[in-house]
Structures are given as structure tokens and as C-alpha cells.
Amino acid sequence: MFMKYHQAKKVLLLFVILFTALYMALYYLLFQGETKIYVQKDIFLREWYISKSYSNTLADSLRKTSHGIHCYGFNHDFLNGGETDKNFKSSGWIHHQSKTDVVDFTHIFDSTNFKVAYAFSTFYSDENKEMLLAVGSDDGIKIWFNGEFVHENHVGRGTHIDDDFIPVRLQKGVNTCLIKVDNGDGGWGFIARFREKKDVLEYLSDNVKEFWFSPLTNYTMVVGESLKLNPPNVIKISLFPKRPKCIVEIIMPDGKQKVTSAISLNETQNFSIKLTDIGLYDLIFHITVENRNEIIIRKEFFVGNLNKELNNLWNRTSKLLQKNKSNQFEISWRGNLERLDTLIHGARGISKRERSMLVVRQIITLYDLLRYNNEGTNALKHKKGSFIRGYLSQIDNSFQYYQLYVPSTYDSKKTAPVMFHLHGQYERDMPFMNSNEINWVDAVEKREALGEKYGCIVVWPYGRGNALYSGVGQEDLPIILSELKADYAIDTSKICLVSYSKGATAALNNIMRFPNLYTAVAAIAPFTDYRIDQRSNVDVPKSHPYHFFLDANNPSEIVQNLSNKSVLLLHGLDDKYSSIENSRSFYKRLKQFGVSVAYKELPNSNHFNYFVDPEPMVYQWLHELPQPEQSSVTTYRTAQLKYHQAEGISIVRLDSVYRYGEITADILNDSAISVTAKNIIEYRLEPLRLIGGTTQQGTIVTNNAPSFSGSFLSVPLITVNGNVDSTPTRQEKSSAIEGPINHMYSSKFIVVYGVSGTRKENEINRREAESFAREWYKRFFTKVSVKSDAEVTDADIATAHLLLIGVPASNRLIKKILPSLPFSLTSNGLIVGKHTFRSSDAGIRAIYPNPLQSGKYVSVFTGVTSDAIQHSIERFGIDGWYDIMVYDERTIEDKRSVNLIGFFDHDWKVNDGLLYAR
Questions:
Q1: Is the omega angle on the peptide bond into residue 254 within 30 degrees of 0, that is, cis?
Q2: Who contacts 351 (Cβ-Cβ below 8 Å, separation ≥6)?
Q3: Which of 203, 232, 294, 379 could tie 373 with a disulfide, CB 3.0–4.6 Å?
């Protein structure tokens, strides 16, 4: 009896142990083990194993390079052969379940700039089949599928869905995918999903009117040649049948004669047509796709000797200029010939596609000017439709494009509203250069349709690409607006800026900085306060001048400037990139100051589906805006004198630089204005512009004290709270000469390297000047003027800012102006105010009013010895948010590790309150 009980107890205990083990195993498989992810079309892939991050540069001590060919990590296998291991296991990696469709590395890693990381996952398929893996990435991406290398795209861009399509073969059962994403700076991550080939093909067939399809070996051809076509694989994936049908139409320059022929894609073919006429030919491809209607691709090419024809065209343009003296034709095309030559023959840092399109568009624009102007009238005045315009930038003598759509209903006897579409961050190209991008083509067509519906002129400014319409990129908007006002009847009460993401921030900044130019703004998912998302990575004390810079460029600080404007604010509830708190807090600020604002939160919208969808409501909103009433109160707030002017108000001098000054003009009646001024010493007022009347006499009170009484036709400079030394020779900051270093790049400048020293010094100077020019070209695809100090003329000094590179012994201009600068160099050190830096490798960058020419800057890149100058462009770049920076060989970045950094005071003197010294 006892034995049976004992045996039963043992069996029961064994059963409990087995049951517990089975339960734990099932629990681990169900809840702790690998979750099976089955392949489903169009479902974004959110579950991945993530590696640690790796450096994308050779050495952290070196200056971080911009994203590009120098990225070390993109081409280095950090997995020691694991990148191509078909049995790769992500042991030790963290499991990550993304809350959004985007796998955002900036939310995973503390340090994200100039980094590389991997993501690994397994996918299960019920059958063997082919699908497309559709990905977007920020920045470059590599992909291995089932251990095979299937894709590489080394680009700098933001994360957008379906940027790349990769055909992959799914095997029944387990499939592996390893993704590698590198980053320059800013955002970092990727988005991925599987798509059916037929679905993508159907979308392309239905929605895309024009792909990027480079059918020509050259865009410029010579008379007498036969046309040679060399069509590559259509689009970026093989969506078409093996032998798709294609009919080609060639339309001659006269627009009437036409040749039609059939070709086979992916095969080089010569046409019997002889190119006999100089000019622009149209090339139209009609491609039949699988069980769908045809896709039409339209391209243009130029026949003739490009430089010769440009010279001929220039001579003809000059005659037209002499005949009609139209400002529209005051374009120095000769100044563009060198750039065109560079583009044609191949420049580093720019693709053949971009190079060819730039050349072709230059010719198109120039031909338009002449073809429509044979009567001596302005060819583009009141012109309708979609076309390219441009202007010659005085900064670097480059032609800056913008695209324009004028609706067919435009009537020069009536005024039309204007909609400026600003692009977002990492968008380098203009819409007409992006015809391969589905979203761009879709966006352009939809916006043109909206412009047609509401009778609105639509503008796409380039803004120097990723400059985000700030600094050098800020010059586009006012120039374009002035050209539009000269050639079209513009409704000045409805000039609107619209964009999303960082472009929306740029739109807000521009209307708040220049409220006298624009009347409305539509901001979609903007970044309005750097403190909300903590993306600025500010690792410096609050007293550090970098905070002055951030605060002076923070949109939330100047909402008062929108008091007489109309604002539309839209934000997606699912946006994880730009926190919705940006718009919520900004909306509260706008309401606090009585701004006319409409605010809507968009359901089911993340940061990557704003592109076109919300824009119909933007156009309708602008269309329905009532005519503005004359306001009795005008407020303007700024921390930078460069942005100093509102309607009828101009701030001349701040009491403390890089602190906000604010002025409010309250019209008491048609002959009395009350002004409240904070942190302002001097200002100007134009009473008649504020009042909108013709009153001749009146009074102005400032901070409750009488400041003017007399004729409103000529009000002098008004001083707040006492007198100011107004000696003409006094050196002071102004709207034209204020700093920081970046301000110099907003108008014409020359890079000047010294050749007056030793052979070593001269060589270092020259290399640094060339390095600056390369960096500028890499960013803006234009050339800057570079000269030696021996080549600089009096005319150069009188008309341009000077960036001087060298030590006093090697650059004669630095030696000449050094006694006038607020710092000094000795044989073993550098002195700035009470600060002395004793080191032979101490270097300095500074900007200062040019002692040789009033109204111009001089920026010096110098040091105790030439060793301080060597590689400084590589280490610190060309930018400068500061007036002065002192560094040495231990300096690796321009905030905490510098010896000294900051701003000069209003009188261009050293002020410790505006400096950080280590």
C-alpha cells in the first residue's frame, strides 16, 4: 500500500515537472522567442533586431564629413563577413518593435550623426514567389536578402516610402533580410514593405506621365549626326515585359515636322534622321506596359555647338536689351558660360543626369526668352502655363532656377494670388529635375490643377537646395517675388508660403522675418521650437553664445510678427518625427497674440504622407480668406538687424545684440502714434504707411515720452531713452554689416589666399581656398570666385566681401588690416581682449567690417603659424554661426572644445558677456 502511494507520488511529481517544462517552453516560444512574421503585401515591416551603431568616419577626432563618397562605414563590413552570411544570426542585438512605420534610429541611439547601423529580420512565406521589397531610407542603404546582396543606394535623403524597389525571390519557409543604413547628420532610419509587382506597375501606369529615362548618349549633338538612342532599363526596376513595344516621335525645332519610328528598349539604335537644324528637339516615347495603357515619356535635346550658340544667342539678347531696355533680360549669360562648360564636360559631385538637365534647361530658358521676344517685348510678361524662369545671383554669378505655373484663366486686368511651395529638408533638386520621382511628378500635376481651379499662380523656388531658404538660400524668395510683381498682376493681400516639415519651419521663419513681403502662411508639421524635440543636441551651458544663436532663430520667439497675417497650421496625429506639441504650443502662442490662425490635427497622418494630400484645403483656405482690414497696431520682434523691417517700421540699433528687441506702433488717431520699444535704441518710422492716409502733421510718443512732432512726410531717426553718439566714423553693427560669418555669404564675396609668404605657407593657403571652393560647389553646384592676394583689385575691394586665408606674413591684405581688427597676433600666441592664447597652432576665424571699404565685410581665416590654417576647412567647414572663434589642434568641434567663441558687441568690440572662453 505504501509502495503504491510512493510510486503514485513520484509519477505525479514527474508529471508536474514535465508539465512545467512544457509550459515554460511554450511560454518562451509564444512570448519570449522569435515571433514569426509572415509576408503580407503593403504592410510596413516594424519588427527588427538592431545592431549597435558604428562610426561612419575613419576617426572621431577628424571633422565629420558630410554624407557622400567619403563615408567610411557604408562600405566597411563591421560584421566581419557576416553581411553575406546566409545563416546569419543577430545574437546580442536588441529586439525593436517600431511604434510607427518608420524604423527611426534617432529614437534608438543616443549618438546618431555620422553613424552606421544594421537591422535584421526573418520573414515567412507560404510559397515560392517573386515580390518587390520597397524601401526608403535616411541616408544611404544596403540590403542582403537570404544572404545575397540585392541593393545599394548611397544617397543623402530623408525617409520616404517606396523610394527604391528591389525585386526579391521569396522561398517557401524562412527568409532573411539584413539592412544597413548610414547617416550623415540629421534624421536616420528606414521604412520597408513588400509589394506586388502588378500593383506597382498599375500605379505607375495610372499616375506617372514622365519618368526619368535617359535615352540620349548626349543632350548636345552636332548638325549632320544621326540620332542615336541608347535606352537603359526602364525605370529603376524591371516592371515591363522582356520586349515591350515602344513608339518614338521626334519633333523638329519648328514644332511642325515630325518623324515616327518603333524601337526596342534596352538596345542601342541609330535613326536615319539627320539632325539638320540647330535648336531644341522633342523626343516622345509611347511605351505599352502589361495589360495597361501606354506610358508617355517626353524629353528634349539640343543640337548645335553649345558654347558657340550661347555666344550667338548672347549677341542677339544684347541687341534686344538695347532695343527695349527690359529688366527681365538683364542677365549676364556670359557669366554662366564657364559653369555650363563645367556641367557639360563633367564636374565632380554632380551626376550626368543632373548635368545634362541643367544644360538643357538653360537652353530652353534662353530660347524661350528669344523665341517669344522677336518683337522686342518681354517674352515672359503675362506668359501662361508651366515653365522655368530664373535670375542671375550676384553672390556667385550663378543662374538660379524656379518653376512657375500661371493658370489659363489669368487675366492681366485682374490680380491673382500667389502660392510659394517651399521644399523640405534633403530635397536638392527642382521639380523639373525630379521627373523620376513619383511623388514629385504627382505633386507638380496636382498643384498645377489646384492653381488652375483657384486662379492661383504657383511657384516652386529652389532656394539653393538644402539651405532651407535661410542664409544664402533666403535670397531666392524676395527676388522671385519682385520678378512676379514686375510681370504679373499680383494680389498683394494673398501671397502665401506653404510647406511641410523643415520646409514649413522655413516658411514660418521667412514670413515672420519679412512680414512686409508675404501675407499668409500654411505650415504642415513644422518644427517650431528646438526645445520641444531636443534635436539640437545642445551640450553647452546656458550662458554659451550658441544658445543666443538658437534663440535668435527660434520661430516660437517671434510669433508677434504674424499679428497682421493669416496662418493655417496642420499636423498629423501619428507624426513621430515632428512632435505634434510643436504645432499645439505654437497655436497657443498665436492665439495669445491675437493672430488669425486656423488649426487642424489630421488623423491617420504620419510625417511621411503629408506631401500633397493636405494641400487642397490649403488652396481653398487661401481662396476664402477675406480681404485684410487696416490694423491699428503693428508689432515687430527680432534679435538680428538683418531682419529689421516690418510695414512702416525699421529697427536701426539694438541695445544688446543677440537679445530680442521688440517695437509696437499703435495708431491712436490719424495724427498720433504711440510706440513701445524694448531693447531698442534707434528706430525709423513711416507714419503714412502705417496710417494709410495723407496726414501731413502729427506726433510720435515713444515709451510714454514725446519723441517727434512735425511733418509725417520726413520723420528722422528716432532715439529711445537718450542720445546716441552719431559720429559718422563710428563702427557699429547694422542691417547690412552685422555678422555672423554666414551673413557674408548672402551677397557677392571673393575667397582670397595669400601668396606673399614662404612656399609652404602659400601652398597651405591655396589648398584651403580650393577646399572652400569644393565645399561650396558640393553644396550648391556653383563656383565661388577665388583669387590670390596679388590678383585682388581695388574694384574687388569696393564691390565684394573678402574672405582672407593666410597668416599676416603670407597674405598682404591680412597684414594691412590687422592693426584695425579687435584682436592681435604675436610670434607665439593670439590675443582677444583680455584673453591670451599662447600656442603656435592657435588659429582664429572672425568677421569684421572691412577697414578698406565701408559697407563690406572682411572675414579672416588666420593663425599664429600656417599650421593653424592647414585642414581648417576640412575640420570646421565653411559655415560660421559666430563672429569669432579661436581654436587649436585639440579642437574637434565648434561649441564646447574651442578656446573662445561668440559675438562682438554692437560697436564691433570684444565683450566677455557675448563670448565663451575655455
A1: no
A2: none
A3: 379
Residue 744 CA, chain-centre distance (Å), reads: 19
CB–CB of 693/719 below 8 Å? no
**Structure confidence at residue 65 (pLDDT):** 47
How many other CB atoms sit within 10 Å of the CB of residue 169?
14
8 Å CB contact between 877 and 833: no
Task: Provide long-range contacts, Cβ within 8 A and 24+ apart, for 554-557.
Answer: 554/529, 554/530, 555/505, 555/508, 555/509, 555/512, 555/526, 555/527, 555/528, 555/529, 555/586, 556/528, 556/529, 556/585, 556/586, 556/589, 557/637, 557/639, 557/660
Name residue, grid cell 538658437: 550
pLDDT exceeds 50 at position 818: yes
Are 716 and 683 in contact, with CB atoms under 8 Å apart? no
CA distances (Å), origin 640, targets 327, 417, 657, 733, 871: 32, 30, 8, 10, 31
- Cell 585642414 -> residue: 871
pLDDT in tens, 857-910: 999 999 999 999 998 998 888 999 999 999 988 887 666 688 999 999 999 999
pLDDT digits (tens, 9 = 90+) for 288-321: 655 555 566 666 666 766 556 555 655 555 554 4
Q: Which residues contact 711 (CB under 8 A, 6 or more apart)?
A: 696, 697
Distance CA 878, CA 889 (A): 18
Q: Are 193 and 44 in contact (CB under 8 A)?
A: yes
- What the block records as the C-alpha cell of 333 is 549669360
List, in sequence order, the alpha helices (H) in 519-633.
Answer: 530-533, 545-552, 581-592, 615-624
CA 756 – CA 777 distance, rounded (Å): 27
Three-state secondary structure string covering 71-116: CCHHHCCCCCCHHHCCCCCCCCCEEEECCCCCEEHHHCCCCCCCEE
Please, is 523 exposed, middle or buried when counting C-beta atoms within 10 Å of its C-beta (0-12, 13-18, 19+)? buried
SS3 of residue 189 by DSSP: strand
Rounded CA gap, 30 and 184, in Å?
A: 39
Mean pLDDT: which of 85-89, 239-243, 424-428, 651-655 is highest?
651-655
Q: Which of 168, 192, 190, 170 is nearest to 180 (CA)?
A: 190
Computed on alpha carbons and rounded to an integer, the radius of gyration of the chain in Å comes to: 31
Cell of 398: 550663378
pLDDT at 713 > cutoff 50: yes
- Determine the residue type at 418: V
Residues counted in the chain: 918
Task: Compute the Cα dihedral for 479, 482, 486, 487 and give only its sign.
Answer: positive
Alpha carbon distance 566, 519 (integer Å): 7
Eight-class DSSP state of 349 = T
Stated pTM of the model: 0.66
710/455 Cα distance (integer angstroms) = 45
> In a 10 Å sphere around its CB, with 0-12 CB exposed, 13-18 middle and 19+ buried, how is residue 845 labelled?
buried
Q: Per DSSP, what are the bridge partners of residue 129?
A: 170
Phi/psi for 858 (5° steps) reads -130, 130
Torsion of CA 433, 434, 435, 439, to 10 degrees: -150
CA 310 to chain centroid, in Å, comes to: 31
Calpha distance 559→554 (Å, rounded)? 10
- Nine-digit cell string for 896: 564646447
Cell of 616: 487642397
H or E stretch covering 179: strand 173-182
Look at strands 645-646 and 672-678 and give their pairing. unpaired
C-alpha cell read off for 577: 518625427
Half-sphere exposure of 792 (CA within 13 A, CB side): 27
